[in-house]
Design goal:
This protein has 677 residues and is of the alpha/beta class. It has four domains: 19-35 and 334-423, Orthogonal Bundle (Helicase, Ruva Protein, domain 3); 40-85 and 206-330, P-loop containing nucleotide triphosphate hydrolases (Rossmann fold, 3-Layer(aba) Sandwich); 89-202, no CATH class; 440-671, Ribosomal Protein S5, domain 2. It is 45% helix and 17% strand. The radius of gyration is 36 Å and the shape is elongated. The two termini are 42 Å apart. Residues 1-5 and 279-285 have low confidence and may be disordered.
Length: 677
């Protein structure tokens, strides 16, 4: 391999730029799409499986990011398989004549519950009339019960009617001592009423309930202790209301309230539920002397939460995976194709129509698609978070109507993004002002030994931006190896620690082949006081280390990002657009020199979706992006020196940076050996 082969050319405008042309927009608009849920084939298949299997344990955990359409997908899939609800059962509670504090549960075919409630009301009125008349009370009252029994048959009927008859007989023995006022005051007029807690009379399909505020009362029901007859004080929660159908619960809200998760597991494991007492002012579950009979609970529970919560429950809860056998994971991105472009356009236009927004031009659609790819951080993908596109569209509509625009065009989408950047750029502007004033020391020109401009992404809420950070390294003969100063100061995360250990492996493999590594190297992030984590700066740290070892000055007008492995191969990193644009803005604070630029992993070219300002500067050769594969390529750019290739004897020829580094390491070993002797 020649030295010329290792030199890297900067990206051209065509390589750095990305967008959607009018022909693509027109073609994909013609394709159209009626798909409601887009880009989630695996999640939809899992949902269909879990929702269709009626057996115990086949509840579903839906994971993914907020805004990825999880709720809509669940609702859409349920609607497709919900059926007509013909097998739904009404649920009632009636007086338990043998154990009044244990209300009896009654289940009836759909719609029969309402009829039974009305029939018992009429029964009560007629019974009161018989009591007032007194004559032939018992046979006439028994006839009323017989009519009920003939009209309404249900599984619990024999027990209920037997108790009712027995109570009528007891009442007949007291009738001579009752008057009208005593009857009504004593509650006889309501004793025989039924409490319809779940009514499916008007249900055209199996119930689908989204429990937005899970609590003991909302989920499991409550008991009104003030009610004279216990069965009339029972109120169903959403879990019982969903019986025969589906209930959706946000798991993070569920876990936030003490005892909810354990109670839910208990009930879905038993496939039955007992309405519980209310909650005390202190948030504790009240004990209650009322113990309603348990209701069967044929319900499909769908939990919606993050991947992190799913992993936590899987690891820490032994029962979780047996109760939630189905995992439906929603992706945050989908492969870019004519089909997914058409689906994205169709969803945008559907939203525009439903919300009566201004007409969207084709160039606006192109910018929205470009934003979708930018949000997905990939030219090859589009985001499945349609909500972010809708937000952008709503803001563009507001801008258009506020400035007497008749349509939403591409320039308006760009304007909205510019306004967003401006509103959220206080922190970024402050950092650049500190760099310009010299308060934050960062060199943007010249060459220095052991100092490299790395690139970091700073997050503030929903906003993120790139900023340069100086990485420095000092070396001396020693046995300590590479010392991570951030770690020593308690400011280094585990992934960053690992990245530093990799650097030592690189030195051994590439240089210290025939002699022990004898070095002290201190690496630090200058003027950094927050925790450092991740490995995206590991290549920058290695460049600073190699520069310090070989006493090789490196360019300060180039910033670097990229992870590195022990073999010296550069690996891709996240936030590449923010990092490039952040360094570009920093350079413009003092004016572009025509030499400044950024070194990135070659794999990250597919992630480049840069602002028009950066693309324009690249075209005018005022700013550069170099995409590299190896540390040697990066060092050649930073030092303006060739890497050098080992000859047949395994040695680097003089005059290249690898030779300088290896020779310095040998001298360090000799110095340490001399001190020992």
């Amino acid at each position: 391999m020649s030295e010329q082969q290792i030199r890297v050319k900067p990206l051209s405008r065509e390589e750095a730029d990305f967008g959607f042309d009018s022909a693509t927009i027109e073609r994909c608009k013609r394709l159209g799409s009626s798909a409601v849920v887009v880009g989630q084939p695996r999640a939809l298949r899992s949902l269909e499986l879990g929702l269709s299997i009626p057996k115990s344990g086949y509840n579903i955990f839906v994971s993914g990011d907020s805004g990825s359409g999880r709720h809509k997908a669940v609702q859409h899939t349920v609607a497709a398989i919900a059926g007509d609800g013909a097998d739904l059962r009404d649920i009632l509670y009636v007086h338990n004549f043998g154990q009044p504090d244990t209300p009896m549960i009654v289940t009836m075919e759909r719609g029969e519950g309402e009829r039974f409630v009305d029939a018992l009301f009429t029964f009560n009125q007629e019974l009161i009339t018989l009591i007032e008349e007194r004559s032939d009370f018992l046979p006439r009252a028994k006839a009323l019960v017989s009519n009920l029994e003939q009209s309404f048959s249900f599984p619990q009927g024999p027990s209920y009617y037997s108790g009712l008859k027995g109570d009528i007989i007891r009442l007949s023995k007291q009738i001579d001592h009752l008057d009208k006022e005593a009857i009504r005051a004593g509650g006889l007029a309501t004793k025989y009423h039924a409490n319809l807690v779940v009514n499916h009379a008007h249900s055209k399909s199996r119930p689908f309930i989204i429990e937005g505020h899970p609590s003991h009362t909302n989920l499991f029901g409550s008991i009104d202790a003030k009610e004279k007859h216990p069965h009339l004080g029972l109120h169903a929660g959403s879990l019982l209301a969903a019986s025969g159908g589906f209930i959706v619960i946000d798991v993070e809200d569920l876990l936030a309230e003490s005892g909810l998760w354990e109670a839910l597991k208990r009930y879905i494991d038993a496939n039955a539920l007992a309405i519980e007492g209310g909650i005390s002012p202190r948030g504790e579950l009240r004990g209650s002397p009322i113990r309603p009979q348990m209701a069967d609970l044929p319900v499909k529970v769908i939990l919606i939460g993050s991947e992190e919560t799913y992993d936590m429950l899987s690891e820490e809860d032994d029962r979780f995976l047996s109760l939630f056998k189905i995992s439906a994971e929603f992706d945050y991105q989908m492969e870019r194709s004519d089909e997914t472009i058409a689906q994205t356009i169709a969803n945008i236009l559907r939203y525009q129509s439903e919300h009566q927004l201004l007409e969207i031009t084709d160039d606006a659609l192109a910018e929205l698609l470009r934003y979708s790819a930018w949000y997905a951080e990939s030219r090859d993908h589009l985001t499945t978070h349609f909500s972010v596109l809708y937000d952008l569209l709503e803001e563009a509509h507001w801008w258009a109507t506020s400035h007497d625009k008749q349509v939403i065009d591409g320039s308006l989408i760009l304007r909205v993004n510019e306004e967003r950047d401006y509103a959220a750029s206080i922190s970024e502007s402050r950092i650049n002002e500190q760099i310009k004033s010299g308060e934050m020391i960062i060199n943007l020109s010249g060459m220095k030994v052991g100092m490299v401009n790395g690139l970091a992404v700073m997050d503030r809420g929903a906003v993120s931006f790139g900023t340069p950070t100086v990485i420095s390294c000092t070396v001396a003969p020693g046995s300590e190896g590479i010392v991570n100063i951030e770690h020593e100061a308690g400011l280094s995360g585990e992934i960053h620690d690992k990245g530093l250990l990799i650097l030592e492996g690189y030195l051994r493999k590439h240089y210290a082949r025939n002699f022990p590594l004898s070095i002290y190297a201190g690496i630090a992030f200058e003027q950094s006081y927050a925790e450092v984590d991740g490995d995206s700066a590991s290549s920058s740290e290695l460049y600073a280390l190699l520069s310090a070892i070989g006493e090789l000055p490196v360019r300060q007008d180039i910033a670097v990002t990229g992870s590195v492995n022990q073999m010296g191969m550069i690996q891709p990193v996240g936030g590449i657009n923010e990092k490039i644009e952040g360094f570009f803005k920093t350079c413009t604070t003092t004016a572009l020199t025509g030499r400044q630029g950024v070194i990135i992993p070659i794999q990250n070219v597919r992630n480049l979706i840069l602002s028009a300002e950066v693309i324009d500067a690249i075209e005018k050769k005022q700013f550069f992006i170099w995409a590299i594969r190896t540390i040697d390529e990066g060092m050649a750019l930073l030092t303006d020196r060739p890497a050098g290739i080992r000859n047949a004897k395994g040695n680097y020829p003089a005059g290249n940076f690898n030779h300088a580094i290896e020779e310095r390491l040998k001298k360090m070993y000799q110095a340490v050996s001399a001190n020992r002797s």
